[in-house]
Give the backbone structure.
Amino acid sequence: MPTLLRVLKVLGGVGAWALLAAVVASTIFVGSERTVDLASHEATVSPDFSGDVVLRSGPILPDLRAPSGSRVGVEIELGKTDTTSLQELTARYAAIASQPEGQIAVVSRAVRTMAVAAAVQGAALAVLPFLVWVAVGRERRRVLLTRLPSVGGVATGLLVVLLVVALAAPVGWGRQDPAAQEWSTLGEFIGDEIPLPAQARDVEIMGDATTEETRRLISSAVSSYDQGLEFYTKAAEDAAGLELREPEDGETVAVLVSDRHLNVGMDKVARAIGDRAGATVAFDAGDDTSTGERWEAFSLDSVSAAFEDYDGRWAVAGNHDNGTFVRSHMEDLGWTYFDGEVIEGPGGSRILGVDDPRASGLGNWRDETGLSFSEVSDRVTETACAADEADDRVATLLLHDANMGRGALAEGCVDLVIGGHVHVQSGPTPVTAEDGRIGYRYTAGTTGGAAYAIAIGSKLRRAASVALITYREGRPVGIQSVTLQTNGRYDVDEYVELLY
């Protein structure tokens, strides 16, 4: 019996600790916040248990609310952004909303991080009362209990209550209560002039945003969202019926995207093309952004979400991916970049890559920083040929501009050079070296359908391209190009075998 009593006491203690830990962790969780890059804004994310996602968009545009699909809710307060045009901002919102997976992943990661941190802190803090209980001892506890009715005991109790109130204060203080505000459905707000997509029917909008200019902006954004959603969703669905070569046993297919230039709508299309072709890995040849700034993180989040479950993802930075942010952010999201060494690639192959040394703004100029384009090209050739001599032949040379691989091909040191940059598809073109060895050069078109450095919008501005590269026994053995035209029609090139 004493043993049973001891076990019951231990179980009771563990249960009490678990309950206290849950209460403390919940309090810490709903008092937490994180700053993230979201929808081209610096945004603050604060979790709660409302079951709603509330978007605080600032003093001009109205707030929005929609069900989160779970008991956990979140309040998102949008901060500073780069744009000075409200029309440009709402158009950007519409394009991002039509491909929301990347932004959902950003918020989800932030909420999970806060939940884990709160759980750890709650578990640790919940141990403290039990440690104090043991440290005080039985005799001292008996003395303290006899003093509870005294003035000192009452003062101590009040102090404990005040500490609890101070701890719980962030839960309800300092934040707006969404339930206490006046909300109306988005359909009621914009009227019957623009049909509301099914995906937006649960969205509510603040009822006090009633200016005609605001209504026009929101109506325009809804219209753009609907057009983009319809175009890219249909293109993704149509991809399932494309006649593409499927991999045979022992083959690995890679999807190559390049020059997306913020067009997140094409990400679901590229993934659908990859699924139809049996692809399991991805290449990104750069220029995912227009200037490489933090506000463009939504584009990186989107392409990462599209190929998140692939077996491998390799990337290089393009000339528009200025600075270190793009590479750093993509590496955090699981993409593999290169540091001057040959590494393992798709299907047991070997791969080498290098970021573009140039930096371009939105104008028609090119600035070279650090090593020049020709200097980097020479180093790529030296590295590839040294690897070839060491019996570690480079099967794929991943670049932003395939011109950087001319030397390696001329020396016969690589099997395949792939890139983008010029927004026009070219190849695969065989190149015969002086020693008779054959390599191939392939330039992908713009996956974003970009005419210039920004391709975000409700529809394609020009044809968008995706390439499918097949690997067998550690070498690239074929390429098939797929192009989506601006009218939604697909053009599928013949599968081209790479013969060595």
The chain is about 40% helix and 20% strand. The chain has two domains: 14-239, 240-497. Residues 14-239 form one domain. The longest helix spans residues 101-146.
